Amino acid sequence: SVKQAEKAVHQKKEQSKTKCRKARRRHINLVAEFNHRQKKNIWLETHIWHAKRFHMVKKWGYCLGNSPTEKSYRACYRAMTKHCLLQDLSYYCCLELKGKENELLKQLARMCSIDTGLTFQEASCLSGRFEGSLYLYRADRYPEDMLGPVTFIWKPRDGSENRQLWIWVHPALKQDILRELREIFQCSEPEEICITESVTTSIQEEKQVEVVTSLGNKRKKEDKEGEKSVPVKKIIGDGTRDPFQSYSWIARTTGIVISDRSMEILRYRLIGPLSHSVLTDTLKAASVQTV
Question: Which ranges form a coiled coil (predicted)?
Fold first, then answer.
């Protein structure tokens, strides 16, 4: 009994070494832990900031800030009316269409109507200068079978007949709209099979966690060297898709390509009179060199 008691005390001492805050907060441990916690619900890039200040909810495969923990309504209103307020809308899903402009417009016209407002063919939007918004319907079913509202942005023309279109949809509508787009463009064959890095890294992360737990008392030098070997998880999709599912499809007859760019292209909304000033001070134009 005395030996068992000594053994229990010895085991507790070994376990406590891995539980000290200094060890938990090391980069090698944090990356593995954060990636492990995102297996079911994806975090936005601003998750840590929101988690400290908001009540978080799990919706549509994401972990989102729902309501502030403090009374910040006046501060937000003041920012919107006098300064600048930023919102993270990266949980919205981005569907990318690439192909010949006339072919894209021909098929997309079947999913919308001029009676509801703008269409994908609106001149100001087609040039790529402005973002458009409209309601999508199942092909040739207007005014019945509405799929939902979307926003879209055309990439400006580069002299080629091939164009690039980004359609932003709510995650609750993504699967239905993606299915309809694939059907009207006949994009049935996967262009790329999504063997994502997150699948391979999850195995590596589990091994890394085992190493961390078994070698909790390793030195800082070993940690710094190990940081380079810790995989950074690349998240593709909206958190509800199977990791082995395709994320890009092509139509062999027309060459149209539909890709799911969710969580690859981030989206932020700036509200307030100083929004433009914030953007100009934050973003610097790159110097384009022509050969």
Answer: none
Instruction: List the single range of 6-15, 71-80, 159-168, 220-229 with lowest mean pLDDT.
Output: 220-229
Q: Which domain holds residue 177?
A: 93-190+246-265
286 has a pLDDT exceeding 50: yes
Q: Among 162, 47, 48, 145, which Cα is nearest to 96's?
A: 162
CB 116 within 8 A of CB 132: no
The answer to whether residue 240 sits within a structural domain is: no
Handedness of CA 146, 147, 153, 154 (dihedral sign): negative
More confident residue, 180 or 22: 180
Domain co-membership, 172 together with 256: yes
Contacts of 139 (CB under 8 A, 6+ apart): 107, 110, 111, 180, 183, 184
Number of domains in the chain: 2
Per-residue pLDDT of 59-90, as tens digits, reads: 888 899 888 888 888 888 999 999 999 999 99
Nearest residue to 155 via CA among 104, 199, 111, 90: 104
Would you say residue 182 lies in a domain? yes
The answer to whether residue 79 sits within a structural domain is no
